[in-house]
Specification:
Elements (H helix, E strand, L loop, with lengths): L9 H9 L7 H16 L6 E6 H4 L1 H4 L9 E8 L4 E8 L13 H11 L5 H18 L9 E7 L1 H11 L11 E5 L6 H7 L1 H11 L12 H13 L7 E4 L5 H4 L11 E2 L13 H4 L4 H12 L2 H17 L3 H27 L10 H13 L9 H59 L5 H28 L2 H5 L6 H34 L3 H13 L1 H8 L5 E4 L2 E4 L9 E2 H53 L36 H35 L4 H8 L5
Parallel strand pairs: 3-4, 4-5, 5-6, 6-7
Antiparallel strand pairs: 1-2, 2-3, 8-9, 9-10
């Protein structure tokens, strides 16, 4: 094979990339790679596979650094016999949320890292991962040819892998022999200006800019042309291969300012014949509006780099996700305390179940605290329990309020800016929506509905700001702990009322968002199709178009010749057959062990005992005099003489092994073997029926026979 590229077709590469989105162990990854390779090539993958995961390699690094959201895998294929030595770096695409958090870290990087060019943290993690694994591989002692390295990436992963290729390694060489980017987020000039210092200097010299923000003032077409020429002169761009669906949402936005076209693309995939994508629509968005967004978000790049997602959101809006996390963690404990107070109130004759409004609740609390001692009754322990629960609840509420003060202060500062941004959106939305109307994505009525919902959001935000200004003075909130219980309760009533108002406005905002989501527009349908086209499943099936093969969840489906109506999950059928065969073989092996154990413990033991008896009889009959001492046990010694045994004749009758033991066991074994045989016939029928259905497909038989387990 002489180290020729193993994963040498688009569909093979895409299916291997798709494994990145499945939570598989390293052993399962290897097994799936072997299965997919055999399904696509009809050949056994004759190389060892070593799997390296970013979660393992970057584990120590992540203990001290902000989580960039990067995930990736490197596959090392090696065989001294076949002279194979290849490594494939796979950078994973965007995920809505990370494994252990609600925060959309990947998509925040898409915005801040790619569109704005405000950070390089995912690229840095991808580079560190690739460098460390490459060092591990290079230090292995073996008799292998020089390593050939390839890069795979989908979506955001396509962006990372492309930039890894654009940036030279430590020796000044390109990293990969070939890079394959599928439905990738193209690099932008703004992103490269942060990552590549030499390029940034060239931009500054070319366009005479003095500070970071000035890059957004460069005419978009001029910056794009300069950047593309700069990198095309640095590397052979044919080493970067793009595989793109025409309907893909990222391709749809790739005409936006700053996005580059570097690399080789042999046409486009058609994942939906009746839909042409959203590129035409996005191209209608004024460049001036996009520039305004970039410059606005660029102000928060430093915070995003330093403090990650939490810092970025807090700096942008005043909203602190860390406060949300602490409130979520304290909520269950707080609820338990409230329930105890509710129970105490009920026991005092106050039907708390009828109290639903916060002001009613606190009026009852206030009344209970100010009651004369004897009104409560003689049960002093009960009163103490009530007061303890009450003050515990007040303390918890006060603590939560105080914790929220920094957030309220920040919201006081930031809300006007957010409201201003929403107003700008509201005022500038009309021409954008009109473009949607012009291309037929929405109707005039739908446009008016959208504008109305945006206005509702603006109105609610203004109301929230007003409530904060009037009722949530941070200095008063911080002073709660120093006041007497009576005053505390009165102020808490006002604060809770203010929070209720804010909650009500937030509910209105949520309803407005729900309304926006439920506007019945063809645009949402088009966007849904575009989002589907972005996924690897759509790409895989587009690559298999006009064949009798389709794919779902990385399983291969086949249709018999001339009958596209029937689709059979070949991958699953092979798994069922091989698993069924494995189970029956295991059962047969266990039955053999059981029979052998029975033979040893019963039949052979019985025969050995009979053999020992016969041997002993023969010894006694051959040497009777040796057993003369036995006579002295039953006879008196003759006076002056002795007895000698001259003859022994044994009339033995040795019976065979009892049938009452052997027959039930034999019957049980026959029954089990009969059931196993039925299972084997059933499993074989599955294979026979599929082979008959696909009689013209020679590789089907081979797939059933090949064991691809890792």
């Amino acid at each position: 094979m002489s180290n020729e590229e193993l994963l040498n077709t688009d569909i093979l590469r895409t299916r291997i990339m798709d494994l990145e989105y499945e939570n598989l162990s390293n052993k399962e990854v290897e097994s799936e790679i072997r299965r997919i390779y055999y399904e696509e090539t009809g050949k056994k993958l004759s190389a060892e596979v070593t799997v390296y995961r970013s979660d393992d390699i970057l584990k120590e690094h992540r203990k001290t650094k902000i989580d960039s959201g990067f995930d990736g895998t490197i596959l090392h294929f090696q065989s001294e016999e076949k002279k194979i030595n290849q490594a494939i770096t796979i950078t994973r695409g965007s995920e809505l949320g990370e494994k252990d958090t609600w925060k959309p870290i990947d998509w925040t990087y898409n915005l801040m890292g790619i569109f704005v060019g405000g950070t390089d943290n995912q690229y840095s993690d991808a580079k560190r991962f690739d460098d460390e694994v490459n060092s591990i591989i290079q230090n292995k002692e073996n008799d292998l040819p020089s390593i050939e390295r390839y890069g795979f990436g989908h979506s955001l992963g396509g962006n990372n892998i492309t930039i890894l290729q654009l940036m030279p390694d430590d020796e000044g060489e390109v990293r990969f022999k070939k890079v394959y980017a599928i439905n990738d987020a193209s690099p932008t000039a703004y992103q490269l200006a942060v990552i590549d210092n030499k390029f940034r200097v060239s931009v500054n010299d070319k366009f005479q800019i003095n500070n970071d923000e000035d890059i957004y003032t460069i005419p978009e077409n001029e910056l794009k042309a300069f950047t593309e020429e700069y990198y095309k002169n640095k590397i052979d761009e044919t080493t970067i291969n793009h595989l793109t669906a025409e309907e893909d949402m990222l391709y749809g936005v790739s005409g936006v300012r700053g996005f580059l076209e570097i690399g080789d693309r042999n046409g486009f995939l058609d994942t939906d014949p009746i839909f042409s994508g959203i590129r035409e629509l996005v191209d209608k968005i004024p460049d001036q509006d996009l520039r305004t967004i970039q410059m606005f978000l660029s102000n928060y790049s430093t915070t995003y780099n330093k403090d990650g997602f939490d810092g970025f959101i807090k700096e942008l809006t005043g909203f602190n996700p860390a406060v949300v996390d602490s409130v979520l963690n304290a909520r269950s404990e707080f609820s338990e305390t409230v329930e105890k107070v509710q129970k105490s109130m009920n026991d005092l004759g106050k039907p708390f179940t009828d109290i639903t409004e916060a002001d009613n609740f606190w009026s009852v609390v206030k009344e209970s605290v100010t009651l004369p001692f004897d009104v409560v009754g003689t049960n002093i322990n009960f009163q103490n329990e009530l007061l303890h629960g009450l003050f515990q609840t007040i303390g918890n509420i006060t603590e939560l309020i105080v914790k929220a003060v920094p957030m309220i202060i920040e919201m006081t500062k930031k809300l006007p800016e957010v409201i201003s941004s929403v107003k700008v959106l509201y005022e500038n939305l009309d021409p954008i929506l009109q473009a949607f109307v012009d291309v037929g994505f929405i109707s005039q009525v739908e446009k008016d509905e959208i504008v109305s919902y945006i206005k509702e959001i603006e109105t609610s935000l203004v109301a929230i700001q007003k409530t904060i200004d009037e009722s949530l003075d941070p200095s008063l909130l911080l002073a709660l702990n120093s006041k007497d219980p009576n005053s505390q309760i009165e102020e808490i009533i006002e604060i809770v009322t203010a929070f209720q108002k804010i909650h009500s406005e937030i509910s209105d905002i949520q309803e407005a968002f729900e309304g926006l989501k439920n506007v019945d527009t063809s645009f949402m349908e088009h966007f849904s199709v575009s989002a589907h086209a972005h996924g690897l499943d759509a790409v895989i099936n587009a690559l298999a178009v006009n064949k009798n093969i389709s794919y779902k969840n990385n399983d291969m489906y086949m249709s018999p010749s001339g009958n596209g109506e029937i689709k059979v999950n070949i991958s699953s059928s092979v798994r069922i057959y091989q698993k069924g065969l494995s189970i029956t073989e295991e059962k047969e092996s266990n039955v053999k062990k059981l029979k052998a154990l029975f033979d040893i413990e019963y039949l052979e033991d019985y025969q050995n005992r009979q053999r020992e008896i016969v041997t002993q009889i023969h010894t006694m009959e051959s040497n009777p005099s040796q057993y003369s001492y036995l006579l002295y046990r039953t006879l008196w010694n003759p006076v002056g003489g002795y007895y000698t045994l001259t003859t022994i004749n044994v009339n033995e009758q040795l019976f065979p092994f009892p049938s009452k033991i052997n027959e039930p066991f034999s019957h049980m074994i026959e029954t089990i073997e009969g059931e196993i045989e039925k299972e084997k016939v059933l499993v074989k029928k599955i294979r026979d029926s599929i082979e008959e259905l696909f009689s013209e497909e020679e590789k089907i038989t081979k797939m059933f026979d090949y064991q691809y387990g890792g």
